[in-house]
Amino acid sequence: MFQRRYISFSVYALCILSTCYLIPICSCVKDLVLAGIFPITGKGGWAGGVGCYPAAQLALEHVNNHSGLLPGYHLTMHYNDSECEPGKGITILYDLLYNEPQKIMLLGPGCSTVTTTIAEAAKMWNLVVMSYGSSSPALSDRRRFTTFFRTHPSANLNNPAYIQLFKHYGWQKINIIQEAEEVFVSSVENLERLCKQNKIEVVTRQSFLKDPAEAVRNLNRSDARIIVGLFYEKPARLVFCEAYKNNLYGKRVVWLIIGWYADNWYEVDPDKDPDVNCTKEELKEALEGHLTAESLIRNSNNVSTLSGRTTEQFFNELGSRLTTKPTETPGYVEAPLAYDAVWAIALAFNRSIQELAKYGKLLEDFTYSDEFTSQVIYNATQNTEFEGVSGRVSFTSEGDRIAQTQIEQMQDGHYKILGYYDPDIDVINWENGRPRDRWIGGKPPRHETLKYPQFRIVERFLFWSMVTLAGFGIVLAICCLIFNFTHRMRRLIQLSHPNINNLMLFGIVLCLISVILLGLDKAFDTLITNERFYMLCQARAWILMTGFTLSYGSMFSKIWNVHRLSTYAKKESKREARRSAGRGSFRNNTSFAEIRTFSSLVQTQKVESWQLYIVVIALLVVDILILALWAGIHPMDLAPYKFPPEKATDTDEDIEYEPVLWQCASPHDTIWMGVIFAYKGLFLIFGLFLAYETRSVKIKELNDSRFVGMSIYNVVILCIITAPVSLIISRQHNAKFAFVALSIMFCSFLSMGLIFVPKIIEIYRRKTEHSDSKKLEDSIPSREEEEKYQKLLGENEELKKQIQEKEEKIKMLQGRIKDRASERARLTLEYQKSKEAEQNVSSSSPKQAETSGENMVVPDRVEQKRHSDSALPSSTGA
Ligand code: ABU
């Protein structure tokens, strides 16, 4: 009995034992398998799997050793390397999902380019994804990535930190260079939005796919100072190599880049990265002083975390598992995130197991078509919150983490923490209360080069030389005015229409004043303030234009009248010629008579002063109309023209001088200038034509018209050259001023010389010839005498013409008389011969004499003919 009882007890005990110990070992501990994707190798992107995979393994061990977590379960992971290549990532995802065992959740992938592809597809398998190393802000889109969570903060979290840095250093203009990946594009878009809100100008935004050379050159061209760079680690080396080559670094430039590269990321072996044509030293030089911003991904409170370890302990433990130095391990910085990601999954599973138990379901029974379990896992993950080695872990509704941003600066090739940006209060908390930043030039660079205006003013020597010459010209013009006035009673002056010459002199004075106005610039800014520049512009235009019209217009009016009168005289002379031809003049004498009549006619033409004034007044009215319309519609004002800046050579500071030229301009001034040039151009060309047409015409009442014509040639040619040349050299203020001033003065001096010097010489000559001024006056014929003389000249011409005609007629009649005389001699001879023959016949036969009775009438016929001939001269009145 005892034996039977002993046996039954043994069986019972065995059963108990097997239930308590053997069954859990064999079938009670169930595997919960994760699919793990890590970027470990690969040529570009982020190889954070090197540091993150060991951290995840460590976390799995710690989770499985944790007594209160996942009882009866063993968390395990099947993983593969994505090489940070989206294509590769998808391939390994299929491998992981379609190979046993069933995966409950996806850990990773670890780089944004792969994550965006996989996290979007994961919902097809009802897989919840927990990423430890994806910073792309695009991943915060819940509609696109419905089952996605990450322990890595979004890159957008760093942007407010950048804004605070810009504000702190007073940078209002920034430049951006980015790698053309969605992760950086979406982050830059957010940064631009924030910049706009904070009135910070994004001057340039450069992007590149593989080679950043052109983008860096563009930054250099746009004189970038504050440059935000968003790119992966390998392109970062290329960017800074280009920055080194383009001298885009140093005391004038500051770079702000991502802070999650390995600490010595620039010290790469040239054999491993042959694309980088710069040495470590060169990269270090280019990187000195740059700032980085990265989300704070370690628990800085030095508290014990869910795993029972401090962050320090975690890193110590991790370090013992790494094969490379931490500073050389990609993903070492993000390792706490991978560690916490595993813990977050474990907590979510723990919660899910309990939740599923309520529905009689088991987590390990999850399949890719099990939407219910997937939703339970999703909800559990969403509500997960714990103290991790990377800080407090919790997820927003978008699945993002909230974190502070750490700001570092490279000093002597090492990163130094400057402070932390707290997003809750939007403030940077500087380490030890103040930013311990260090700058190459001793102070932070400015967002742009300091630009000082440097006014382009006319050379003082040139200005004063021209002013002196113009002043001399004005004095000369005044002397000519005085000369005209003092000799106004002389016929020589009277016949030159002194008043119109005075008008010309007044115009010349105005033109010479405009020379002085043209030279007034910023050098006289106490005299001409910006507000008064409007008046200066108006004064320049009005004085030069009216001065030109008065001077050139006066000459033009003279030449116009000469032409008018000569045309009239020509018509008159033709009429005269026709009239005399009608009275019986011979054709071959008409031209001779006509020329003589024209010259006499033109000489005697009278010119009234009002006929000259009317032309000048008409031209002035057109001028005033154009100028008034211009001033009324598009008034001219100060329009500073800025030349390309020039580097300051007199200082070491980042200063540029910005040459500025004061100019008068108005809206649509090209149209107005076009109108004026066209009108003045026609006026000039017409004057030239008139001067040429009347080059040999002399009118007593405009005795200086030929000199006026010469003066017009000179003015027209100079104006035609000066106007376009001054437009071409309008930016070369000295050359333009010299050219325009000399042209105006040359025209003025030459016109005064041509019109007044002959008069002065003539009067001086007459004075020296006749010391007695009375005699001198007498020697000059009076106006009435002159008219009488001209009249006599005309009559004389007429008489000469008549004499000529008569002489011709006499000549012709004499010829006829001669002919008649020879005819009569011949007839007489014939008559005598016939008479002799008759006598001979009558002496020989009376009968013969009767038959030739017809010959008896011959003497009568000869006589008759003689009578008619003798009547001819009398009938013509010879
Ligand atoms: N901290 C690494 C982020 C890498 C990525 O977002 O692709």
Structure, described:
The protein has 878 residues and is α/β, with parallel strands linked by helices. It is 56% helix and 12% strand. It has 25 helices and 21 strands. The strands form 5 sheets. An 8-stranded mixed β-sheet has the order 7-6-8-9-10-13-14-15, with helices on both faces. Strands 2-1-3-4-5 form a 5-stranded parallel β-sheet, with helices on both faces. Helix 4 links the parallel strand 3 (103-107) and strand 4. Helix 11 (335-357) packs across helix 12. The radius of gyration is 57 Å and the shape is elongated. Residues 1-26, 585-596 and 846-878 have low confidence and may be disordered. Bound molecules: gamma-amino-butanoic acid. Gamma-amino-butanoic acid is lined by residues 46, 48, 111-112, 133-136, 152, 183, 260, 334.
Strand order of the largest sheet: 7-6-8-9-10-13-14-15
Overall pLDDT, averaged? 85
The main β sheet shows up as: 8 strands, mixed
Count of β-strands:
21
Q: Helical amount among residues, as a percent range?
A: 55-70%
The stretches of 5 or more residues where confidence is low (pLDDT under 50) are: 1-26, 585-596, 846-878
Which molecules are bound in this entry? gamma-amino-butanoic acid
Secondary-structure class: alpha/beta
Between the first and last Cα atoms, what is the distance in angstroms?
204 Å
Strand content: 5-15%
The best one-word shape is elongated
**Count of helical stretches:** 25
Rg from alpha-carbon coordinates: 57 Å
